[in-house]
Write a structure and sequence with these properties.
The complex is a heterotetramer, with two copies of chain A and two copies of chain B. Chain A is built from 14 helices and 22 strands. Chain A is of the alpha+beta class. Chain A has helices spanning 11-23, 63-73, 89-97, 107-114, 116-125, 141-151, 174-192, 249-265, 297-304, 308-316, 396-409, 419-426, 429-432, 440-445; strands at residues 4-7, 27-33, 47-52, 77-79, 101-102, 155-159, 169-171, 197-201, 207-215, 221-233, 236-242, 270-278, 284-290, 333-340, 342-343, 349-350, 353-354, 357-359, 366-370, 377-378, 385-393, 411-413. The chains are: A alpha+beta, B alpha+beta. Chains in contact: A-B, A-D, B-C, B-D, C-D.
Chain lengths: 446, 160, 160, 446
C-alpha cells in the first residue's frame, strides 16, 4: 500500500479521500488554491500546499502545479477525486511519466471510454444494448436523415466528445433535423474542440440508472449494484438512490452483468460507473462509462458496506480484490440529496457566502459528507455543493421518511440551498411511487 | 525568531477567531513595545477614525484571514515600505544556478525588475524568478532545496 | 511570558463575554504600558421610529432568541419603571376564582404584595398567585384558560 | 400510536427522542429550564415549554411542573429519557393517575427492580447466577461476619437502594468488615434515605457486560445482544462496545437468555438493561436491571439496525413487537465514546463554557448524537456530556481504527473534553487486545 499520496482536488471529496487514507494508514497531502486557504478540512491533511490563485486553471486544473506539489511533497500517488483533472487522460500520462501512480484507470482506458462513439462500439462488442443510431460520427445531413428514417423519429443529436447537454438536440422530422445539425456541431466545436456528432433514437421519459464497478490489475471485475439517478435538473443529478426502485430482480442482474462485460471489454482497472438509460419497459441501453469515482458513490457504500475510495487506493497500489461477487450484499435502501448553495428562486444560480449557522442532521442511518462548517465560506469560484446528505434504511418508505426528517433538521444560514427543492421532490407522490423520469424535476421546479 | 512569530501568529489567529465569533469590530492589545490592533469592517458605521499611523499589513499566504491583521513589533516595523518577492509557482527553491555557483542575489544585492533572484524548480524545469521590482535585497527567506508553495515570500526588497 | 499571554487571551475572552452580556460597544483598559481596547458594532441605530402604533410584542417561547431585541413602541415606552408579575409555575391561567366571578384584578386595580392577582392551575391544583409588589395594574397580558409557562409575564404594575 | 408526547428531559436524549417521534409521525413537546432556553435542539420540537429555573429540582426533576406542562400541552404520553425522573416510580404513578402514558415500565416494576435485594431474589428465581452473598439485608455485624466467612473474603458491602458507588466498601477480613459497616450504612442513609446493606463476594478484575432487552404488554420479550461497558472511570461509563470482545458464542447466548429470564420473571414491559459482572473465567453474575433507555443504547442500534426509542414508543402505545428473536441479527462491531466537557488535567471535573468551534467527524460508519453546536454553551447545571461518538464497522480493529480517526477529526474549542482520554484508551495495547477490567481506566488515567 502507498504510504503517502496527494489529493488533486478540494472540498468534500478531498476530505472523503483524507478519511480513507487515514483509516488505511496513508499520509494525505492536500493542495489548495488561495480561495480555499482557510478551509477547515485542510487541517486534517498531513500536509497542505498552496498551488495557486482561486482560478481553477491556475490551481486545481494546472497539471504542472499539481505535479510540482506532488514532487516537493514526495508522494507515491495522486488521487484526482471527481471533476477537475479526474478524467483528463493527459494528466494521467504526466503522472506516469513522473513515476507517480495515478489513482484511477490508465490514460488509454480514459481516452477510449471518453470517446462516446468508441465507447458505443465497445459496448456492442460486449453484447450490451446500445440505443439504435449512427454507427459512428455522421458525415453530413444526408446520412443523418437516412439514419433517422431507418431508426425512426424522434432522434437525438449528440456531440461525440460531449457531456452536460452541450451539442444535444432532439428532433422529430427531417426538417428540424436539417436545421439542428449545424447548431449542434458549432456548440460541440466550441465546447469540446471537436465537432463530431452522432445520432440516436430518442428514448422518451427514461430513467437514469448506473452500475458501480471496480476492477483490479489481475482482471477481477466486480459490480456493487446500481444507482438510480433519475432525479436531475438540466443534467445535474440532485437525488440518487439504490436500488433502482422499478427494476425487477432478474433485469437488475442483467444490468449489472452488462456493466461488467463493458468494463472487462475495456480491460479497465480501478473504479468506474457504467451509465444506462432505462426506458418505460425497463429495457436498458448503454450510455457511457465514467472513469472516476462519482459524487454519488456514498449511496453504494451505504447499501453494500464497502468503502469505494479504499478500493481505489488498494487497487492503484497493486492489491487484488479479495472479495467475490457473492460477498457483496445489497442491504436496504440508500438515498442521497445534494445540498448545494443555490437559490431556487433565482433559477438555482449559485449562492455563495459565509455560513453563519450550520447544524448537521443526525440520528440512525444518517450520513453527512461535508467539508463545510459554521463560519466557513462557500466560495464563488467552485461548484456550489455544501454537503451530501445520505440516509440508509431498511425500506424505501423509511429512507424517504428519514431523509425528510434530516432535511428538516439541516440548518444552513443565511445562504439559500437546495434543501427546500429536495424536500419538495421527496414529498411528491410521484417520487414516492417512483413514477418519474429524467424530466420530472424540470416539470416540477422549472 | 521564527518560533516567536509562529507563537504570535497563533495568538493573532486566536484573537481573530474571538473577534469573528463575537462580532467585534476592533480589538487592540498593547503591552510595552508590542501592540496588536485588529479591525473588522463596521457593519454600518460610515467612517472609522484611525488616530495612529498604521504599518503595512503582514500577509500570511498559508492562512489568510478575512480581516486585515495588523501585528506590530519593533522588528516588523522595519518592514514598512518593503517590497516582497513571492513565489509565482509551487516547487523547489534554489538560490543559485548550480551548487558550485554563487547565489543569484544576497542581502545587499541591488536588483532591477529583470534581475533573476532565484530558481524555482517545478517538474524538472528550472524557472528563473525575476525580481519584478527595483531596490536592495534586505532579507532572504528561503534556503536552497526548500519546498516553496504558491505565494510564499522569498525575498524582501527595500525600494530605491 | 507565554503563560502571561495565555492569561491575557483568557482575560480578553472574559471581557468579550462581559461586553456581550451588557451590550457594551466599546471597552478600553489601560494599565501603564498595557492596554486592551475592544469594540463591537454599534447597534443599527439608537432609535427606531415606528409611525404606526404597534401591538404588544408577540412572545414565542418555543423559539427563544439570544440577542436582546430592541423594539421600542409608543406603548412600551411607558414601561419604564413598571413592575412585572410573572408566572412562578407552568399551568393554566385563570383571572377569576370561577367562571361567574369577577376577575381578581383588572386594569386600574391597586395591589399590595399579598393581593391575589390570578390563579395558575397546575395538576388540578389552583395556585393563587400573589402580586409580590405594590402599585396599580396597568396591563393584563393573559386570558383565562391560556397556558402559561414558567417566567411568563402576566401583569404589569405601576409602582406607587 | 401516540400523536403527541412530551419529553421530560433535555440535551442529546431529548433530541434523540424528537427524531424518533418525527420519523413515527408523532408531535414532540419539549420542556426546558431557563438555562436551556437558547438550546438549538428546542427548535426541532413541535412545542417547547419553559418549566422553571436552571436548578433541576425546580425544572427537570419537578414532577408537578412537568405534569402541568404535559397537561397544558395536551399530550398523551411522557418519555422520561434517562437520568432525572426516568427511574422515579412515583413519577410513573403520577403519570398514570393523570391519564398520561409513561413511556417505560410500570411503577411496580421500577420499584421491584430498583430494590437491589429484591432484584437479586428475582434473579435467583429466574435461575440466573448471582454473586454469592447475603440473602437479604444484613441485620448486624455478627451476621455479616458469618456470611463473609461462608462465601470467603474479599467481600463487598453495598447499599440495597444504591448506585454510583455510594455506600460501597470492599473488605478483606473480619476487622475491616466490622469497621466498614457503620460508615457504609451512614453513607447509604444519607444518599438514598435507606440504610439497608447487603454483602457480596467481591469479584476481582471483572468486566461489565449488559444485555439490552425489550418487552411488550403481550408478554413478548426479546434481547438485542450485549454491550461491554468495562471502560469506566469511577463507575461512570466512558466507552462502550458490542459485542463483548471476550465472550465466546455459547456463553454469549447463555448470557442473553439469562437476561430474558430475569425480565420475564419481573413481568416487565418496555426497554430494560440487565447488567452483569463477568469474571476472569467469563462466568457472569447478575448485578441489576436498569428500567430505562441507557445512554449507550446507540451501540446496540448500530449492530442490530433496530431503533430502540421507536420500540419504546410503540410498546408504550400498546403495539406488540412484530419481530422474532431470530430476526434480530448482530452485525459487525460498534463502539461508543462519550465526549464530555471535562478536564482530564483537573481530575475530569466538568468544564462548562461556550463552544466557539465545533466540527463533527463524519464518514462511513460514523454517527454523532449531539444536541450541541458551534456558538452553544455547555451549561454548568447539568451533566457534562457534549456528544456520543459511535462507529460501526465490520471488525473490532476497523472500529477502533475509525474511532481514532473520528476522535482526531472532532474539533471542540475552547473547552476541554474527554477526547484525549478516549484516544489514549483506544490506542492502548491492552484495550486493543481486550485485556482489561473495570479498573483499567483508573489505573491508566487515575
Amino acid at each position: 500500500m502507498f504510504s503517502r499520496i496527494l489529493i488533486a482536488n478540494r472540498g468534500e471529496i478531498a476530505l472523503r479521500i483524507i478519511r480513507a487514507c487515514h483509516e488505511l494508514g496513508i499520509e494525505a497531502v492536500a493542495v489548495y488554491s488561495q480561495a480555499d486557504a482557510d478551509a477547515e478540512y485542510l487541517r486534517l491533511a498531513d500536509e497542505a500546499i498552496c498551488i495557486g490563485p482561486a482560478r481553477p486553471a491556475e490551481s486545481y486544473l494546472s497539471i504542472p502545479r499539481i505535479i510540482s506539489a506532488a514532487e516537493i511533497a514526495d508522494v507515491e500517488a495522486i488521487h484526482p477525486g471527481y471533476g477537475f483533472l479526474a478524467e483528463n487522460a493527459h494528466f494521467a500520462e504526466v503522472c506516469a511519466e513522473c513515476g507517480i501512480a495515478f489513482i484511477g484507470p490508465t490514460p488509454e482506458s480514459m481516452q477510449l471510454l471518453g470517446d462516446k462513439i468508441a465507447a458505443r462500439e465497445l459496448a456492442e462488442r460486449a453484447r450490451v444494448f446500445i440505443i439504435p443510431g449512427s454507427e459512428g460520427a455522421i458525415e453530413d445531413e444526408a446520412e443523418a436523415i437516412k439514419i433517422a428514417n431507418k431508426i425512426g423519429y424522434p432522434v437525438i443529436i449528440k456531440a461525440a466528445a460531449g457531456g452536460g447537454g452541450r451539442g444535444m438536440r432532439v428532433v422529430h422530422n427531417d426538417i428540424t433535423l436539417r436545421a439542428a445539425i449545424g447548431g449542434a456541431r458549432a456548440e460541440a466545436e466550441a465546447a469540446f474542440k471537436n465537432g463530431a456528432l452522432y445520432l440516436e433514437k430518442f428514448i422518451s421519459e427514461p430513467r437514469h440508472v448506473e452500475v458501480q464497478v471496480i476492477a483490479d490489475k489481475a482482471g477481477n471485475v466486480l459490480h456493487f449494484y446500481e444507482r438510480d439517478c433519475t432525479i436531475q435538473r438540466r443534467h445535474q443529478k440532485l437525488i440518487e438512490e439504490s436500488p433502482c426502485p422499478v427494476l425487477e430482480e432478474k433485469r437488475r442482474e442483467e444490468l449489472c452483468k452488462a456493466a461488467l462485460r463493458v468494463v472487462k471489454e475495456a480491460n479497465y482497472v480501478n473504479a468506474a460507473t457504467v451509465e444506462f438509460l432505462l426506458d418505460k419497459e425497463n429495457r436498458f441501453y448503454f450510455m457511457e462509462v465514467n472513469t472516476r469515482i462519482q459524487v454519488e458513490h456514498p449511496v453504494t457504500e451505504m447499501v453494500t458496506g464497502q468503502d469505494l475510495i479504499k478500493w481505489q487506493l488498494k487497487i492503484a497500489s497493486g492489491q487484488t480484490i479479495d472479495l467475490r461477487q457473492k460477498d457483496i450484499k445489497h442491504t436496504g435502501v440508500a438515498i442521497e440529496c445534494r445540498i448545494n448553495a443555490e437559490d431556487p428562486a433565482k433559477d438555482f444560480s449559485p449562492c455563495p457566502g459565509r455560513i453563519t449557522k450550520f447544524i448537521l442532521p443526525g440520528g440512525i442511518g444518517v450520513r453527512v459528507d461535508t467539508h463545510q462548517c459554521q463560519g466557513c465560506t462557500v466560495s464563488p469560484y467552485y461548484d456550489s455543493m455544501i454537503a451530501k446528505l445520505i440516509v440508509h434504511k431498511k425500506t424505501r418508505d423509511q429512507a424517504i421518511n428519514t431523509m425528510k426528517r434530516a432535511l428538516a433538521e439541516f440548518r444552513i444560514e443565511p445562504i439559500k440551498t437546495t434543501i427546500p427543492a429536495c424536500m419538495e421532490i421527496l414529498s411528491h407522490s410521484d417520487y414516492a411511487s417512483s413514477r418519474i423520469d429524467t424530466g420530472f424535476v424540470e416539470r416540477l421546479l422549472g | 525568531m521564527s518560533e516567536n512569530k509562529e507563537t504570535k501568529l497563533q495568538r493573532v489567529k486566536e484573537l481573530v477567531e474571538l473577534m469573528k465569533a463575537n462580532d467585534l469590530v476592533e480589538l487592540e492589545i498593547a503591552d510595552g513595545d508590542s501592540k496588536i490592533l485588529l479591525k473588522r469592517p463596521q457593519p454600518v458605521g460610515p467612517t472609522i477614525t484611525q488616530l495612529s499611523p498604521v504599518p503595512a499589513p503582514v500577509i500570511t499566504p498559508a492562512v489568510p484571514v478575512e480581516q486585515t491583521v495588523q501585528a506590530q513589533t519593533p522588528a516588523e516595523q522595519q518592514d514598512v515600505g518593503l517590497a516582497e518577492i513571492k513565489s509565482p509557482i509551487v516547487g523547489t527553491f534554489y538560490s543559485a544556478s548550480s551548487p558550485d555557483s554563487q547565489p543569484y542575489v544576497d542581502i545587499g544585492t541591488r536588483v532591477s525588475p529583470d534581475t533573476v533572484v532565484c530558481i524555482v524548480e517545478a517538474m524538472k524545469v528550472m524557472n528563473e524568478i525575476k525580481a519584478e521590482t527595483s531596490g536592495t535585497i534586505v532579507e532572504v527567506l528561503c534556503e536552497t532545496g526548500e519546498a516553496v508553495e504558491y505565494g510564499q515570500l522569498l525575498f524582501k526588497v527595500k525600494p530605491d
